[in-house]
Design a protein that fits this description.
Layout: H1 13-42, H2 46-56, H3 62-69, H4 73-85, E1 89-94, E2 97-105, H5 107-128, H6 133-155
Antiparallel strand pairs: 1-2
Helix pairs in contact: 1-5, 2-3, 2-4, 2-5, 3-4
GO molecular function, one term: DNA binding
Pfam families: MarR_2
InterPro entries: HTH-type_Bedaq_tolerance, HTH_MarR-typ, WH-like_DNA-bd_sf, WH_DNA-bd_sf
């Protein structure tokens, strides 16, 4: 016998829409909180730092960086060009395919990347450190579950 889940077990359209709106609003707030101090100290915004991190974490082509960070390819190209000009990243031609290049952090890029985590933690603590720890843990748990469910759905 087939049983259909009651409608109350399914997320309501308004709840889903509110979840997306709230997530976008929080994302903007977090990015704005981090952007100004990073730009002042390092001359780089959070998107540029995410690209730098992706390269350090093994995304060695612009296409892989774009996929990992879910950014449009032209945006990644523009950011990589800026990072190359700042001597943080170098493009290394792929000897097997001259149309492609590998991206590598320069020594200066590695130094900037190592500064970012500590600086980011300090900024986050200064702006959000007053949040109750249980609220933070609950939010992290819920967001990780949501991310897992979305990834499972994409991979199905």
């Amino acid at each position: 016998m087939n049983s259909v889940s009651p409608a109350s077990d399914l997320p309501q359209v308004d709840d889903l829409y509110d979840l997306v709106r709230l997530t976008l609003r929080l994302s903007r707030q977090f990015r704005q909180t981090l952007d100004e101090p990073f730009v002042q100290a390092l001359g780089l915004n959070t998107k540029e730092l995410l690209v730098l991190a992706a390269i350090m974490d093994g995304a060695q082509t612009p296409g892989r960086v774009a996929a990992r960070q879910q950014l449009p390819a032209p945006t990644v190209t523009r950011i990589v060009t800026k990072l190359v000009a700042a001597d943080l990243v170098q493009r290394v031609p792929d000897p097997g395919d001259l149309r492609r290049c590998e991206l590598q952090l320069t020594d200066q890029g590695k130094a900037v990347r190592s500064q970012v985590r500590g600086m980011g933690q300090d900024i986050v603590q200064a702006h959000f450190g007053q949040l109750p720890p249980e609220t933070v843990r609950s939010a992290l748990h819920a967001l990780r579950e949501l991310q897992g469910a979305l990834e499972a759905r994409e991979n199905a």
